[in-house]
Write a structure and sequence with these properties.
two-stranded antiparallel ribbon; alpha/beta; 30% strand; elongated; 149 residues
Length: 149
């Protein structure tokens, strides 16, 4: 089974007519579901991930390194974790060429030095992508502008 779309609305027919509902539209379409806005602080996200995996949807989670790495970590297909110096997320658990560790600050040199032994794909998001070129040119680090381009 494929989940095509998850959205909210109001029930248009039946006993629940007029009530707010969440729709889960099934069928071919979306292959990935992205869970965002630091979901690790929410209860039940692990159950949601299990349900999505059950219906064969690929799951990507965006979170902050200030949250603890959950026990259901391996069930997620791709992690995108914002690097926080001294964060409690287990950055070492991020997988090679699968998960991303993202830095959005101005101290790129510190990020490079403190994350060089990690397996995850490293990403720097910079206001001016050309200002960090000399810093990243000798490292396997992707650089994106503030809007991902």
């Amino acid at each position: 089974m494929n989940i095509f779309k998850l959205h909210r609305g109001y029930r248009g027919v039946g006993i629940n007519f007029g009530l707010p509902v969440f729709y889960v539209d099934c069928g071919p379409g979306v292959a990935w579901v992205v869970i965002r806005n630091n979901p690790l602080e929410e209860k039940g996200i692990g159950i949601l991930v299990e349900g999505l995996k059950y219906v064969r949807v690929k799951v990507e989670v965006e979170c902050s390194g200030s949250s603890r790495c959950p026990g259901w970590f391996p069930k997620v297909d791709r992690w995108m974790v914002d690097w926080v110096e001294g964060g409690i997320f287990n950055y070492g658990s991020l997988r090679n060429r699968q998960d991303m560790l993202i830095y959005k600050g101005s101290r790129v040199e510190d990020f490079i030095e403190k994350t060089e032994d990690l397996q995850a794909l490293r990403v720097v998001i910079a206001e001016d992508i050309y200002k960090v070129w000399d810093l990243v040119k000798d490292h396997d680090i992707r650089v994106y502008g503030p809007e991902g381009g």
